[in-house]
Amino acid sequence: MDEAGDGMEAAQKLASGAYSLILCDVRMPRLTGLELLKHIKDREISTTVALITAHANVKDAVEAMREGAFDYIEKPINETTLLELVAKAKKAHDMIQKISLSAPMLSPGEGRECVGQSKEMKRVFQIVDKLTRVSTSVLIRGENGTGKELVARAIHFNGPRKDGPFVAVNCAAIPETLIESELFGHEKGAFTGADQRQIGKFQYAAKGTLFLDEIGDTSPATQVKLLRVLQDHSFTPVGSAREVKSDVRIIAATNRDLEKLIREGKFREDLYYRLNVMPIFLPPLRERREDIAGLVSHFIEKFNQEHNKQIQTIATDALTALENFNWPGNIRELENTIEHGFVVESSSVLTFASLPDHIKKASRKSSLNQKTTLQVDSLDWEKGKESFEREFIVQALKKNSGRINLTAEIANIPKNTLLRKIKKYNINPREFGGWEGNLEP
Ligand SMILES: Nc1ncnc2c1ncn2[C@@H]1O[C@H](COP(=O)(O)OP(=O)(O)OP(=O)(O)O)[C@@H](O)[C@H]1O
Ligand SMILES: [Mg+2]
Predict the structure, then answer these.
(1) Which atom of ligand 1 is the closest one to the Cα of 335?
(2) 341 and 322 in contact (C-beta within 8 Å)?
(3) Which residue in 108, 113, 214, 299 could disulfide with 338, CB within 3.0 to 4.6 Å?
(4) Ligand 1 centroid, distance to 360 Cα (angstroms)
(5) Ligand 1 centroid from CA 287, angstroms
(6) Distance (Å, rounded) from C-alpha 136 to C-alpha 396?
(7) What is the distance in A from the centroid of ligand 2 to the CA of 214?
(8) What is the Cα–Cα distance from 251 to 248, expressed in whole angstroms?
(9) Who surrounds ion ligand 2 at CB < 5 A?
(10) Ligand 2 center from residue 163 Cα (angstroms)
(11) Regarding beta strands 114-115 and 104-106, do their DSSP bridges make them parallel or antiparallel, or are they unpaired?
């Protein structure tokens, strides 16, 4: 709870603190209620604004609501009406923040959580649940960063092998000449440089789980050996005559198109069938956008601990931008984006401004595409073109608070062309430029 003497003071306070509700008069010295509201909307500050107005100024209040105010009350203020308004505003604010959406479903060990409430992820959780009761091999498919390793850990740490080791091997990162010894171990003198006997990852993972990441990148020779472990539960270390029994559960993962690799003769079909007993497919994040809000609040909690910060929530417009983004790097990219926000954000709310530039830009472009509607009065080609051009420029300027450089960049119009058109169509960018009129040269 805080108070400000007038609109200007409120604007100053907003720059350094987070407020869920602002109650303000319409008529105020220095900065009116409407101007304060515009200031808030232009800066995409996450707060709810309600206005107090004299009966004579109700028209202003109604206009303010059109500009995005939440509600207004008339003077003299009745206590019950005021309390009702505050309760209603709080409910709306909380709902928008969606903070309660985090739904941890699985615990992949070591304090990690696997979050998701889309029907795709619920299905994954059901399969994982079944897989924790058996020891069959698992093949996890999905693009980069979709959570393949996290799901592998969830299977391990929720199953009967949870007290055994979880050993991860990235098959794509180990040179071809070393992978066999890495997986199966070697005897002393097995090859040049092997001056000591060494046990392999299969032995390390005994009674536990071996996670073979990027299995699509293994060579035909390694594939033959893996097939043998899967069939006979035994293997021979490099340079050894002794066969070793293996009590290891294999979970493999890949983002490659294995069926295509099989057709090209680069992946063994028999190994594929052995691994694919219970396949899990993790859909890309852009196909399960319902999970984004929950993931965001999960990462906010995580980074609050890691960075020792107190971020409360994410602003609505920032969340919308994240929900609309395409996420080529999937959840890893989303996680990095939130961490980026933690580094740059100084308030207690992750704002749109704290998002990386490419996400802000994508968001502005998409809302511009959605909102540009065109009306033509006569069906004349030249007039139609002009009317489109004018409307487009007005919308683009509005979206960017009248800033010429920004509009030119985001709408992809050369700056000189933009200035020429502004003059031609007699557009006043200052009209869209916030209360201090930030028109760039
Ligand atoms: N459902 C989820 N809930 C919470 N965090 C998740 C979820 N899915 C993925 N993550 C997080 O996203 C990051 C990437 O996940 P992970 O490493 O498991 O992906 P991957 O599919 O193995 O990626 P790559 O193909 O690049 O190896 C990790 O930090 C992980 O903890
Ligand atoms: Mg991985």
Answers:
(1) 12
(2) no
(3) 299
(4) 23
(5) 16
(6) 56
(7) 8
(8) 10
(9) 149
(10) 22
(11) antiparallel
Winning range, highest mean pLDDT, from 27-31, 133-137, 240-244, 291-295: 291-295
In 171-240, where does DSSP find H-type helix? 176-184, 201-204, 220-232
171, 332, 336, 338, best to mutate for ligand 1 pocket (most atoms within 8 Å of CB): 332
Residue length, the chain?
A: 441
Instruction: Tell me whether strands 234-235 and 244-245 are parallel, antiparallel or unpaired.
Output: antiparallel
**pLDDT tens-digit series, residues 77-109:** 888 888 888 887 776 666 444 333 333 345 566
Q: Which residue has the tokens 């399960």?
A: 288
**CA atoms of 375 and 332, how far apart (whole Å):** 43
pLDDT score of 264? 96
Q: Is 429 in the pocket of ligand 1 (CB under 6 A)?
A: no
Q: Taking the complete model, does pTM exceed 0.85, yes or no?
A: no
Q: Position of tokens 């683009």?
A: 396
Contact 349, 315 (CB under 8 A): yes
Q: CA-to-CA distance for 272 and 277, rounded, in angstroms?
A: 9
For the Cβ of 149 lying below 6 angstroms from any atom of ligand 1, the answer is yes
Asked if 314 and 349 touch (Cβ cutoff 8 Å), the reply is: yes
Instruction: Judge if the beta carbon of residue 144 lies within 6 A of ligand 1.
Output: yes
Distance 213 CA to ligand 2 centre (A): 6
Query: How many H-runs (helices) and E-runs (strands) does the chain carry?
Result: 18, 14
Q: Any bridge partners for residue 251, and if so which?
A: 138, 211
Residue nearest to atom 9 of ligand 1 (CA): 147
Residue 140 beta carbon below 6 angstroms from any ligand 1 atom:
no
Instruction: Give the DSSP letter string of 120-186.
Output: HHHHHHHHHHHHTT----EEEEESTTSSHHHHHHHHHHTSTTTTS-EEEEETTTS-HHHHHHHHH-B
Which of the four pLDDT bands, split at 50, 70 and 90, describes residue 65? confident
- At residue 182, the 3 state secondary structure works out as helix
257 token code pair: 């198109």
Is the separation of the CB atoms in 292 and 116 below 8 Å? Answer: no
Give the SS3 label for residue 430: helix
Q: Residue 198: name the closest of 211, 180, 181 by CA.
A: 181
**Phi-psi map region of 43: left, alpha, beta (phi>0 left; psi -120 to 50 alpha):** alpha
| Contact in structure between 430 and 415 (CB atoms under 8 Å) | no
Question: If you measure from the C-alpha of residue 150 to the centroid of ligand 1, how many angstroms do you get, rounded to a whole number?
Answer: 6
Cβ atoms 230, 250 nearer than 8 A: yes
The neighbour count for residue 111, using CB atoms within 10 Å, is 8
